[in-house]
């Protein structure tokens, strides 16, 4: 709407909408915002490129290279699109359709091009990364992909996001334990622990299975950092279910945990079949209680790292402070390791020259989310 106003003031010429909102509400947007010149869905690449070709001189898409919008030393790599899961609260399958894996050879080619341009860390993303390959190869093939990507010169870290707990592939844990390029970091949205709530969510796993999976991850990948998300206030969540969730979080001691209050999504199973009968006040109260607990756990986990030497990647700098991450932190969603710049220990390299470099640091102090450290050596 702000862009519509800019168009009225003739500060912009034409206005296009694309992405998930355009995919799901194309008709409604066209009726309610007639100032928009074109609405494209999630996958209308040919449509929008064709429109741009008519309005942009010398638009060339031959020999295109992927644009990296992150800092040049790390990049997100989408290994699949869509989702075959039927979680009751989720609208993603309605927007993005069924799961479709990208062939291994295509991903290796993309990753090799990224490495040639200075990318050192790959962050693998999908709506369900552990489902990867089932549609193409007849079996879950994430471990196979990890091995192929780890053979690329220049790539030093490979991180997995958005894994799904039901039928988690064991060979991924083996690869994570034995392959030094695979970050000992698992992002696995569990959403709840109560069997009753998980059943209403259509998660395909119960409390016992979830607890066993977390235990297996801890045992088979020593030192793994687990990140998860939880939903509070889903229809049918009683106080006893929420108390069970608190108990689980207290005992599992996730290094990273985010949480959301349930919000009804149009046309999902939960919206069509359940009554959203938990008040917003109660949802917010449960959310606050859960996150207060997690803040304490996060602080304890960080305190345990004080005195340790860790390998970190320098993401940016703020004055004379280097903003870094270890294998246990993913960019944007996790905390940071703040390192005092030392010219002598940096071998004469300035702060700008250190961005994208690896170095060893010693953790000196801990907060609830961020850590402080000092340089030991540049790698």
Q: What does this entry look like structurally?
A:
The protein has 15 helices and 15 strands. With 379 residues, the chain is of the alpha/beta class. The strands form four sheets. It has a six-stranded parallel β-sheet. Strand 11 (309-318) and strand 12 form a beta hairpin.
The backbone outline, from C-alpha atoms, is globular
Number of strands: 15
Relative strand content:
15-25%
- Helix percent reads 25-40%
Keywords:
36% helix, single chain, six-stranded parallel sheet, globular, five-stranded mixed beta barrel, 379 residues, alpha/beta
SSE topology:
Elements: H1 2-8, E1 16-18, H2 20-24, H3 26-32, E2 38-40, H4 45-55, E3 74-78, E4 80-81, H5 92-96, E5 100-101, H6 104-116, E6 121-125, H7 134-137, H8 142-150, E7 157-160, H9 170-178, E8 182-187, H10 195-201, H11 207-220, E9 225-232, H12 239-252, E10 256-261, H13 269-273, H14 280-303, E11 309-318, E12 321-325, E13 337-340, H15 351-354, E14 358-366, E15 371-378
Parallel strand pairs: 1-2, 3-6, 6-7, 7-8, 8-9, 9-10, 13-15
Antiparallel strand pairs: 4-5, 11-12, 11-14, 12-13, 14-15
């Amino acid at each position: 709407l702000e862009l519509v106003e800019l168009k009225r003031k003739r500060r912009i010429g034409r206005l296009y909408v694309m992405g998930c909102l355009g995919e799901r509400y194309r008709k409604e947007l066209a009726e309610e915002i007639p100032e928009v010149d074109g609405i494209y869905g999630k996958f209308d690449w040919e449509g929008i490129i064709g429109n741009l070709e008519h309005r942009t001189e010398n638009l060339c898409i031959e020999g295109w290279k992927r644009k990296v919008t992150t800092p040049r030393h790390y990049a997100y790599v989408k290994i699949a699109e869509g989702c075959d899961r039927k979680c009751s609260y989720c609208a993603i399958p309605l927007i993005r359709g069924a799961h479709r894996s990208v062939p291994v050879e295509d991903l290796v080619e993309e990753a090799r091009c990224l490495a040639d341009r200075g990318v050192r860390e790959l962050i693998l993303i999908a709506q369900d990364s552990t489902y990867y390959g089932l549609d193409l190869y007849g079996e879950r093939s994430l471990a196979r992909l990890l091995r192929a990507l780890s053979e690329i010169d220049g790539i030093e870290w490979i991180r997995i996001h958005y894994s799904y707990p039901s039928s988690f592939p064991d060979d991924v844990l083996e690869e994570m334990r034995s392959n030094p390029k695979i970050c000992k970091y698992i992002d696995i949205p569990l959403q709840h622990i109560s069997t009753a709530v998980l059943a209403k969510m259509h998660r395909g796993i119960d409390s016992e299975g979830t607890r066993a999976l977390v235990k297996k991850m801890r045992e088979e990948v020593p030192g793994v950092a687990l990140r998860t998300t939880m939903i509070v206030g889903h229809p049918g969540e009683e106080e006893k279910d929420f108390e069970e969730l608190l108990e689980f979080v207290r005992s599992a001691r996730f290094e990273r945990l985010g949480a959301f209050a349930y919000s009804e999504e149009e046309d999902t199973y939960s919206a069509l079949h359940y009554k959203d009968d938990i008040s917003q006040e109660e949802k917010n109260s449960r959310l606050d209680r859960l996150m207060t607990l997690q803040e304490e756990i996060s602080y304890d986990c960080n305190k345990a790292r004080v005195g340790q030497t860790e390998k970190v990647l320098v993401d940016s700098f703020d004055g004379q402070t280097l903003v870094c991450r270890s294998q246990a932190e993913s960019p944007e969603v996790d905390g940071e390791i703040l390192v005092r710049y030392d010219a002598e220990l940096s071998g004469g390299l300035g702060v700008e020259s250190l961005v994208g470099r690896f170095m060893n640091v010693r953790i000196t102090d801990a907060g609830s989310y961020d850590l402080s450290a000092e340089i030991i050596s540049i790698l």
